[in-house]
Task: structure prediction
Amino acid sequence: MAALRPGPGVGTHRTMSAPPTERGQSLTERESEAREASLATAREAARLLAVRIARDKGTGRPASWFEGRREDQPYCGLTNEGATCYLNSLIQALFLLPEVRREVFAFSYEGEAVHGPADACVPLQLARLFTQLQLTSCQAVSTRSLTASFGWSRAESFRQHDVQELCRVLFTALAKYGVAIERELFEGMLTSTLRCLKCALMTSDGL
Result:
């Protein structure tokens, strides 16, 4: 997944009106329609992928449950693959942070020779899951491909884990591929401060 890069700036330019097309639409309108059609195609592809995963791997729900969500459900959910509610909560929280999405989507998979097999590449599978969450119209999508990239078996999905520990393991795995989410977005410094109640003298140490 290649990162999107802004084009070079232009010092001076002239603004010209787009000529009308044969149907009376401007080029800008036609480009907007083309983008909408492309987005609709991507959403449909994400929906079909979720349905295929539901049918091929099984999630305990009928495939029809994945084919559309209610109008009052603005966001897509994640299926519980056994005892993965803690994982789902973490993934949803990270997905809703624009800065995290930007870092994940900026990752570029350069093939097995550089990043190893695609199905074992954590940032690639996380980016694919984020793409489904952003584009699909399904009620929920599966996290099976992501957990498989962790090296988890089906049995592992039925074991409860600590969400804080999972967060640290996930960030470490992403950092190995150059996706430094923890350092760039969540790293900070803890400071301990002591203040005397009589003279108001304060001392502090960074931990």
